[in-house]
């Protein structure tokens, strides 16, 4: 799990670095920066949505497991 988070963080960092580098190469104006930020926001939203779905699934599985364990203890 930690490896996946680390990879995701590095991926995002690499994306930011690439956008900054691209902006430096062609004398970026405000619209270019706004476009880059809009794309970045969409990318992060997609990544976070995926992680939240995984967390919800795991939480549901853990709650079911806890319920089973409590039933066995009775």
Could you give a quick summary of the protein structure above?
With 74 residues, the protein is mainly α.
Percent of residues in beta strands = under 5%
Order of helices and strands: HH
Tally of strands: 0
Determine the fraction of residues in helical runs and give it as a percent range: over 70%
- Oligomeric state of the chains in view: single chain
Integer average pLDDT? 79
Outline the low-pLDDT stretches. Answer: none
Strand-pairing-aware structural class: mainly alpha
How large, in whole angstroms, is the Cα Rg? 20 Å
The number of helical runs is: 2
Number of domains: 1
Shape: elongated
Distance between the termini: 33 Å
The main sheet comes to: none
Tag the structure with descriptive keywords.
single chain; 74 residues; mainly alpha; 2 helices; 0% strand
Provide an overview of this structure:
- It is a single chain.
- The chain has 74 residues and is an all-alpha fold.
- The protein has one domain (2-73).
- The chain is 92% helix and 0% strand.
- The chain contains two helices and no strands.
- The chain has helices spanning 2-25, 30-73.
- α1 (2-25) runs antiparallel to α2.
- The longest helix has 44 residues, at 30-73.
- It is elongated and about 70 Å long.
- The protein starts with a helix and ends with a helix.
